[in-house]
Amino acid sequence: MKGESFSPSKYFSLIAKCSLDFIDSPKYEKVVETLLKCYERGGIVFTMGCGGSASTATHFAADLAKTTAANDKIGFKAISLVDNIPLVSAWTNDKGWNTIFAGQLEQWITKNDVLVGFSVHGGTKRGDEAGPWSQNLVSAMALAKKRKAKIIGFSGFDGGAMEEMADVSIIVPTSSELYGTPIVEAMHIVIHHSIIFDLKDRIKSTNGKKTAA
User: Fold this and answer.
1) What is the full per-residue pLDDT of the chain (213 aa) written as tens digits?
2) How many CB atoms lie within 10 A of CB 68?
3) Neighbouring C-beta atoms of residue 91, cutoff 10 Å
4) How many CB atoms lie within 10 A of CB 8?
5) What is the rounded distance in angstroms from the CA atom of residue 41 to the CA atom of residue 170?
6) Rounded to whole angstroms, what are the CA distances from 105 to 60, 98, 156, 202?
7) 5: helix, coil or strand?
8) pTM for the whole structure
9) Topology classification of domain 54-179+190-202
């Protein structure tokens, strides 16, 4: 609503409601299963995002690699595509901002891997006709689809291009310009932590010692 002021109590109430909406979510379960299968076949999880979502991508990759390790089991092979600043800046300088994720993935991603994207709006359109938002995410997803890698999208609002392109799409639904970004980014972290500790528990309960491929 135009002229509306931010209310902490409303914000926390909206976060609580969104959290309850993910109880027994089939899409949440599919995300966990997709990641677990990647782990079991020795694949790599690549993460990406821009702005606040870049920090979530880094955090998620770190937790996959370290926090999921349980007892004598190793964690995931996980790489955040936002962390190598010299490489990101080189791709930006030489080929443009839209290439920063796909450029890094070109020599890496295979059908055994999973690409995880975090974005408030999910990007606009797809392929060479990508709109003004998050074309770098869209280009990376297009490459992942070409290589037959799985794609997991975390977005908000209507899901954008991620809803169209991802194999499984987690959307935090909102239409609020005032609360939209903080709710979506906060909920991505809430869901992310549940996924990590869920995976850790499932890995811990599997038989045999998991070692690097």
Assistant:
1) 567 899 999 999 999 999 999 999 999 999 999 999 999 999 999 999 999 999 999 999 999 999 999 888 999 999 999 999 999 999 999 999 999 999 999 999 999 999 999 999 998 754 444 455 578 999 999 999 999 999 999 999 999 999 999 999 999 999 898 999 999 999 999 999 999 999 999 999 876 555 444
2) 25
3) 20
4) 7
5) 23
6) 18, 13, 25, 28
7) coil
8) 0.92
9) Rossmann fold (3.40.50)
Residue entry with tokens 């909406």: 21
How many Cβ atoms are within 10 Å of 45's Cβ, its own excluded? 24
Residue with tokens 């995002």: 49
45 membership: H or E segment, kind and range: strand 44-49
Number of other CB atoms surrounding residue 186 within 10 Å: 20
Which parts of the chain fold into alpha helices (H)?
A: 8-21, 26-40, 52-62, 85-95, 102-105, 135-146, 160-165, 180-205
| Domains of the chain, residue spans | 54-179+190-202
C-beta contacts of 129-133 below 8 A and 24+ residues apart? 130/98, 130/161, 133/160
